[in-house]
From TrEMBL:
<dbReference type="InterPro" id="IPR036291">
    <property type="entry name" value="NAD(P)-bd_dom_sf"/>
</dbReference>
<dbReference type="InterPro" id="IPR002328">
    <property type="entry name" value="ADH_Zn_CS"/>
</dbReference>
<protein>
    <recommendedName>
        <fullName>Enoyl reductase (ER) domain-containing protein</fullName>
    </recommendedName>
</protein>
<dbReference type="GO" id="GO:0034079">
    <property type="term" value="P:butanediol biosynthetic process"/>
</dbReference>
<dbReference type="InterPro" id="IPR013154">
    <property type="entry name" value="ADH-like_N"/>
</dbReference>
<dbReference type="GO" id="GO:0008270">
    <property type="term" value="F:zinc ion binding"/>
</dbReference>
<dbReference type="GO" id="GO:0005737">
    <property type="term" value="C:cytoplasm"/>
</dbReference>
<keyword id="KW-0479">Metal-binding</keyword>
<dbReference type="Pfam" id="PF08240">
    <property type="entry name" value="ADH_N"/>
</dbReference>
<comment type="similarity">
    <text>Belongs to the zinc-containing alcohol dehydrogenase family.</text>
</comment>
<dbReference type="Pfam" id="PF00107">
    <property type="entry name" value="ADH_zinc_N"/>
</dbReference>
<keyword id="KW-0862">Zinc</keyword>
<keyword id="KW-0560">Oxidoreductase</keyword>
<dbReference type="InterPro" id="IPR013149">
    <property type="entry name" value="ADH-like_C"/>
</dbReference>
<feature type="domain" description="Enoyl reductase (ER)">
    <location>
        <begin position="8"/>
        <end position="351"/>
    </location>
</feature>
<dbReference type="GO" id="GO:0000721">
    <property type="term" value="F:(R,R)-butanediol dehydrogenase activity"/>
</dbReference>
<dbReference type="InterPro" id="IPR020843">
    <property type="entry name" value="ER"/>
</dbReference>
Length: 355
């Protein structure tokens, strides 16, 4: 079968590799769509970071790794002992690998498992291959009427869903999203799904500002031209927003978030910083009792909640996040490189492993 594999820094190739073999308790999925994630771009441009350079403790595999951890497909074969799934079932795949036994796994905080890994990096394959075989526990059924391209959005939406739940915001709250990239847009969708009173987005790129408006943001501002903290105070009862979601991974974004959040509010850090973050006014966090919360990997329950929220219409029109589709052969030139060089034009680019 054909697969897009990460061999090393700026070295991603379409390779011909054997189809994966079923194991007892596993299922074989024919992949349909896989999203290119910001972490894939980090891996491509400055990695390897997540992909193992020596055999991974869980999978025993190392570079080259099949890419793709945001993906959906259709079950084509069942392994021995799998009786609760059916061939032909549409599915999204929960990509987090863990040992299932440690304290953190029991708490469903899989990202803190010392042995953790990810499909699309650590072995067992990924969504940017034609097929994958994986433990049935990773399988989440999709409704028959949910398109598989939307199914590929479940994973990035789950990242945002987890962050919104950590913030404990609800209909009476005002929130700020700083950065309207893929995770920022996903956060807008999830805040609206939780009924948040107003969602303010801070983003300097005109194209991304439009993406935020299309996602349903209440207000979209350019922090290079407008006083975002002052606007937040004006909209939010003179106190500032209840929660600010930092989705840009740069110093300026954190500074805007800190200046915009009210006393006893929270800053939720979803992004990955490539450069050190300087907290210029740490006493402000202390004096105003502001919480700074890191948000990383979702639980299986949250992954399913996203599927249910899409199916019920709580998450509205997530397909608007899809701004490009590329073949496996074009994934590097028209996917990875375009997202790195022209990132303002896109939210989510999907890869078709069969094209």
């Amino acid at each position: 079968m054909r697969a897009l594999r990460f061999h090393g820094n700026k070295d991603v190739r379409v390779d011909e590799i054997p189809e994966p073999a079923l194991r007892p308790g596993w299922v074989k999925v024919k992949n349909a769509w896989a999203g290119i994630c910001g972490s894939d771009l980090h891996e491509y441009s400055i990695g390897p970071m997540n992909a193992p350079t020596k055999p991974h403790i869980l999978t025993g595999e190392s570079l080259p790794s099949v890419l793709g951890h945001e993906f959906a497909g259709t079950i084509v074969e069942l392994g021995e002992g799998v009786t609760d799934l059916e061939v032909g079932q549409k599915v999204a795949v929960f990509p987090v690998l863990s040992d299932h036994t440690c304290y953190w796994c029991q708490e469903e905080t899989y990202g803190l498992c010392e042995k953790w890994g990810f499909l699309g990096y650590s072995g067992y394959g990924g969504g940017m291959a034609q097929y994958i075989c994986i433990d049935k526990e990773a399988i989440h059924k999709l409704p028959d009427n949910m398109p598989l391209d939307v199914g590929a959005l479940v994973e990035p939406l789950a990242v945002a869903w987890h962050a919104v739940k950590l913030s404990k915001v609800g209909p009476e709250h005002h929130c700020l999203v700083v950065g309207a990239g893929p995770i920022g847009i996903a956060t807008v969708h999830c805040l609206l799904a939780h009924g948040v009173r107003s969602v303010i987005v801070s983003e300097p790129s005109p194209a991304r500002m439009q993406h935020a408006k299309d996602a349903g943001a209440s207000y979209v501002l350019d922090a290079t031209k407008e006083d975002v903290p002052a606007f937040c105070k004006k909209i939010a009862d003179g106190y500032g927003v209840h929660a600010a979601f930092e989705c840009a991974g740069i110093q300026a974004a954190f500074d805007v978030a800190l200046a915009s959040v009210r006393g006893k509010g929270a800053i939720i850090n979803i992004s990955i910083f490539e450069n050190p973050l300087v907290i210029k006014t740490p006493n402000l966090i202390n004096r105003r009792s502001i919480s700074y919360i890191g948000s990383n990997i979702y639980t299986r329950v949250e992954f399913q909640e996203v599927i249910d929220a899409i199916a019920s219409g709580r998450i509205k029109a997530p397909e608007k996040m899809i701004t490009g589709r590329v073949s496996l052969d074009d994934a590097v030139d028209k996917g990875f490189r375009v997202l790195l060089d022209q990132k303002d034009k896109h939210v989510k680019v999907l890869v078709d492993p069969w094209a």
